[in-house]
Amino acid sequence: MIMLYTVINGLLIFSYWLLIACVTVRILMKRRAVPSAMAWLLVIYILPLVGIIIYLLLGELNIGKRRYERNKAVSPFINQWINNLKDCQHIFATQNSEVACSIFQLCEHRQGMSGLIGNKIELLTNTYETIKLLIRDIGLAQRNIEIVFYIWQAGGVIDQVAEALMAAARRGVLCRLMLDSAGSAHFFCSHYPTMMRDAGVQVVEVLHVSILCLFLRRMDLRQHRKMVLIDNYISYTGSMNMVDPRYFKQKAGVGQWIDMMTRMEGPITIAMGIIYYRDWEIETGERIQSSAEHIIPDKYTYSGNTIQVIASGPGFPEGVIHQALLIAIYAARKKLVITTPYFVPSDDLLNAICTAAQRGVKVHIIIPRDNDSMLVEWASRSFLSELLEAGVRIHQFEGGLLHTKSVLVDNQLSLVGTVNLDMRSLWLNFEITLVIDAKAFGNNLALVQEDYIAHSRLIDVMVWSKRPYWQRIIERLFYFFSPLL
């Protein structure tokens, strides 16, 4: 009996270390950033067995076999769609400003399409005014409405959006609604999905959260885009979820969420539609056939706004948003302003920002003083010392949870959308960013950012250097896990 116990115990120990060795080799064989690899090795060695399970669940980008096959099948169709769109040469930009030239070259070579002109763009900073405009546009829709959001939470003015969407479906407008399963969990537990489907709205729960799927795909991979497309002509995107700030996460103690959206009219809506239709087929298996109005934008007139849209996530060019951010930062000559609610940058982005400040660019980073994620808040703090020493001015916004994601370079080049400056947005989730080469829009964005700064507290480098030692220990601890956040 003792010998049997010894043999079983030995086999268990051998199996355990063999499992650790296999996972270690798998981590090392995957070409990933060294900090990320080291963080994962730290997790599996510090947390025996639990760390291995966490890695198997969250360590690799896996959308599941079915979605992978659908993405593979839709790719030739999407490429043909882009080629058809290129026949309309009058909607494509032939030149860009000096600060924007490199980033638009990147987008053209990696995504197959240059920047689009003929767009009207409006910057929206008030949630209720945004909702009012959206309800109006939905009410005027004649053919189709496509919507995707990470969070849709019923209550307040959001119920009016739902009513407008159902009314549009009843009068014959084709309405498609994709919502993330995790972000919109409360919505899918309400009566609204049934009401909407009964009215004719096609409601899809994206990346369904289920214990059965736990080991079949990565559960923390989320659909984080926010888009509304109307009649292939009007579009919205930005940081705002479909929530009423008066009711959303009030118990978090961070105040109301402060967001930014853009409303556009023009060919950029077609480019965003290509992204939406790819997402739709990956999730549902249903192909949305293009019609003439998708690819023949005769009614578009010239304007000075050149816009490019960048999409990320499985099936899209890997790391392109990260590359675009780096190019934008290195292109700055006078001033760089960044707003983000979650600041856990890659080493490349951190070095680029510090280098910009050290070569004389006036660099401002605006982050919320209070964050709804304790892990991200502490991890973010670990980067501030290096930034402050480089001369970066860091502002802590005190008027609520600043949820706006924006980058402004020399008041000319703007990046706005859904992307946070953290690993999850840059390398994992389905995200969208607009790259806007327009002086007027840049000036408007600058005014908004200046207002954010006016409602912020500037971090003093001397005061920061004297913070308690226990805080520094916690910051460094969370820094080790920052590649995983």
TrEMBL record:
Residues 219-246, 398-425 form the PLD phosphodiesterase domain. The active site is at H224, K226, D231, H403, K405, D410. It holds the Pfam family PLDc_2. GO terms for biological process: cardiolipin biosynthetic process. GO terms for cellular component: plasma membrane. It is a multi-pass membrane protein. GO terms for molecular function: cardiolipin synthase activity. SUPFAM superfamilies: Phospholipase D/nuclease. It is an enzyme of class 2 (transferase). It is found in: Cell membrane. The chain crosses the membrane at residues 6-25, 37-58. The keyword Membrane applies. Belongs to the phospholipase D family. Cardiolipin synthase subfamily. ClsA sub-subfamily. This is Cardiolipin synthase A.
